[in-house]
Amino acid sequence: MISFRPLILIIGTSIGLLPLLSNWCIQAQNQSQKIELKVYSENEQKQSCPDKVIVTEKPRPYQEGSFATDSSINLSAYASNISVQGSNSFSVTWVGTLKPKYARCFASAGMTKVDGQDYSGKINYLRMHFVKGKVYFILDLAGGYDANDYPLVVLKNSLKNSNPNWTWGGTD
Fold first, then answer.
1. Distance separating alpha carbons of residues 57 and 77, to the nearest angstrom
2. Is 43 helix (H, G, I), strand (E, B) or coil?
3. End-to-end CA gap in the chain
4. Is 59 exposed, middle or buried, given 0-12, 13-18 or 19+ CB atoms closer than 10 A?
5. Are 121 and 127 in contact (CB under 8 A)?
6. pTM of this structure
7. What is the pLDDT of residues 118-149, one digit of tens each?
8. Which residue has the higher pLDDT, 15 or 94?
9. What confidence tier does 155 reach under pLDDT thresholds 50, 70, 90?
10. CB-based contact 112:102 (threshold 8 Å)
11. In terms of pLDDT, which residue wins out, 28 or 135?
């Protein structure tokens, strides 16, 4: 005689775990990622420049027909009086006055890691310049495109608690 008791137990447990697993998958899709910009300095005294700067990006939940990513950087850790120097549909440049600790920094920075893994993307869309007592943080999506070959665009840029915040996206 065949016993269905183990089969019923497995099916019941699977049904019970299904909501938990689907919720876990949704959370995994919406986790933020840390993008590391390595600072390359010409200063003989490297301590006048940070070694790296971190940008946080978090994809928004799926919306049919498009995608968007919210992003931010703690630029006030390095500078004060931060403002938008210029912007258009494809780029934004924020500028700030370097704090005394970094005022002599002469360097540039670009994307090198995403969540600790080497960055291998097509465009280096996040860059920085440290020059003449100022820091310039540049979001530049020029040359980036989505699945439909439309350009990536800046959807929003602002300052939140004196730090750059922006949203970029495209179609899917």
1. 18
2. coil
3. 54
4. middle
5. no
6. 0.81
7. 999 888 999 999 999 999 999 999 999 999 99
8. 94
9. very high
10. no
11. 135
pLDDT in tens, 38-60: 999 986 666 789 999 999 999 99
* SS percent in the chain: helix, strand, coil, step 5: 20, 50, 30
The span from the CA of 68 to the CA of 61, in Å, is 8
Distance of CA 122 to the CA centre of its chain: 15
The structure tokens listed for 30 are: 């919406």
Distance CA 59, CA 172 (A): 13
Compute the CA torsion angle 75, 77, 79, 83 (nearest 10 deg).
30
With H, G, I as helix, E, B as strand and everything else as coil, classify residue 36. Answer: strand
Query: What phi and psi, each to the nearest 5 degrees, are found at residue 76?
Result: -70, -10
Residue 58, both tokens: 């978090």
